Amino acid sequence: MDLSFGPEYEEFRQTVRSFIAEHGEKSPRNAALRSPEALQWQKMLIENGYTARTIPKEYGGYGGTPNMLHSRIIAEEFADARLNPGLGGQGISMLVPTLLEVGTQAQKEQFIKPTINGEMIWCQGYSEPGAGSDLASLTTSAVLDGDEWIINGQKIWTSTAQLADWIFCLVRTEPDAPKHRGISFLLFEMSTPGIEVRPLIDMTGAANFNEVFFTDVRVPKQQIVAQRGEGWAVANAVLSHERDSLGNPNATLLRLNALIELMKTETVGGNRLIDHPVYRDRLMQLQGRVMAMRFNDLRILSSRLNKDQDARLARMIVKLQGTELRHDLEGMAIDIMGEVGLSYEDNPYTRSGGSWQNQYMYFLGLIIGGGTSQIQKNIISERGLDLPREPKIEKSA
Ligand SMILES: Cc1cc2nc3c(=O)[nH]c(=O)nc-3n(C[C@H](O)[C@H](O)[C@H](O)COP(=O)(O)OP(=O)(O)OC[C@H]3O[C@@H](n4cnc5c(N)ncnc54)[C@H](O)[C@@H]3O)c2cc1C
User: Fold this and answer.
1) If we measure between CA atoms, which residue out of 155, 227, 131 comes closest to residue 185?
2) In whole angstroms, what is the distance from residue 39 CA to residue 121 CA?
3) 124: CA distance to ligand 1 center in Å?
4) Which residue's alpha carbon is at the smallest distance from atom 38 of ligand 1?
5) CA 308, CA 234: separation in Å to the nearest integer?
């Protein structure tokens, strides 16, 4: 089977490779938010159309015509060369595409450019102590007072809230409406008086997410996306972009290749793990899943090119498949390393700076974040396979 994209696209691939050969060494090692290297690299990628490729020029993007194969080639070549593909995060990956779909002209002009440039960092205020999987039960309230919303309530598990400049936040504005119709989608600055951020330490040992408390936080009335009470549709648009971004087959393939290398160097009783039949068998099972993920990705790609094909189901499985596969893959590396697999942080015996352990824990988080695996399975079975919907159990008063 010939899986190349044809001569025209191979020429484009050569252009990307030339860029990588000339500039690849500038790819930042320190990709921390707001680091000068990361911002400089981002600027260069946008100017050359290697990130923000289809975002219109008027909003700070490259202004290219959408072409799925060009985007795919760029992603493949950057992954193969192990280059930073540009900034991501909740603002760039989730909010920007949503604003392009449903934002006002003023919102697009105000927010998209600084966000894709990495100068405006966002966090996502969805989950609450009583609203996670059942997100529509959220109770943080926003009451209109003249030209301002007054917000009271609490969010939880808010990633990067401690660093964010702005938040996109779900609030209840119509308390008497059915729960899905009473929600609005607001944008506001994290420096607004009345916001308190308290860090939560996760199992990696870092405080990657937070609790965020709102006490009489005043937000200008026009900082709403879509109409009041229509925030649920906006929230779901954001979630679909989030789920799409959580199963990158190129990154998974790179990690699989790193696992194979590890199995060639780690030994038990003087024998390489790659030659051990049990571990080899486990490796092949993972390899099969990585291949399946790559072909599922190609199916999504071809359905986007040939609009008559329906890839809804193929898209629904990406988050479930991608996050669970990565977690299993990182976990296998930990098994292979034996007791060294249990070392962490500054232990001198730790391999690859502890990245296997860190990613194992990180991907456990991603199995939960953006909708848990159980919820993904419900969505796939009900909306993708047309199985009966699970009964709705009303919460007791
Ligand atoms: C690393 C990480 C980052 C996150 N970042 C953010 C963020 O930036 N912003 C934000 O708003 N939130 C964030 N979250 C929160 C995340 O969206 C929620 O944790 C997730 O939606 C699950 O909600 P919950 O934790 O309240 O669990 P619950 O909804 O209480 O679920 C508990 C368990 O019950 C299961 N369950 C619940 N309902 C059903 C059902 N109907 N059928 C079958 N099983 C069910 C779940 O699968 C889960 O196993 C993050 C979470 C993690 C782990």
Assistant:
1) 227
2) 12
3) 14
4) 133
5) 26
Pair of tokens at residue 235: 């929230």
Mean pLDDT over all residues of the chain? 93
Whether this model's pTM surpasses 0.90: yes
CA of 367 relative to ligand 1 center, distance in Å:
9
| Strand-pair partners of 267 | 272
- Nearest-CA neighbor of 116 among 180, 194, 51? 51
- Residues of the chain falling short of pLDDT 50: 396-397
The answer to whether residues 211 and 153 touch, using CB atoms and an 8 Å cutoff, is no
What is the C-alpha to C-alpha distance for residues 96 and 112, in angstroms, rounded to an integer? 6
Strand blocks (E) in the chain: 122-125, 141-145, 148-155, 166-172, 183-189, 195-200, 209-220, 224-225, 267-268, 271-272
Q: Is the distance from CB of 138 to CB of 155 less than 8 angstroms?
A: no
Q: Closest residue (by CA) to atom 30 of ligand 1?
A: 132
How far apart (Å, rounded) are the C-alpha atoms in residues 338 and 303?
43
Residue minimizing CA distance to atom 41 of ligand 1: 375
pLDDT in tens, 238-274: 988 888 778 888 889 989 999 999 999 999 999 999 9
The finding on whether 127 has its CB within 6 A of some atom of ligand 1 is yes
List the domains of the chain with CATH numbers.
7-87 (no CATH), 122-229 (2.40.110.10), 246-384 (1.20.140.10)
* Residue 330 is among the residues annotated as catalytic for this protein: no
Query: Which of 219, 162, 156, 159 lies closest to 186, judged by CA?
Result: 219
For 162, residues 6+ apart whose C-beta sits below 8 A from its C-beta are: 197, 199, 207, 210
| Gap between the Cα atoms of 48 and 36, Å rounded | 19
Quick check: 150 and 197 in contact, CB under 8 A?
Answer: no
Q: So what's the pLDDT on residue 394?
A: 60
Give the integer Cα–Cα distance in Å for 36 and 368: 32
**Residue of 8, 11, 174, 242 marked catalytic:** 242
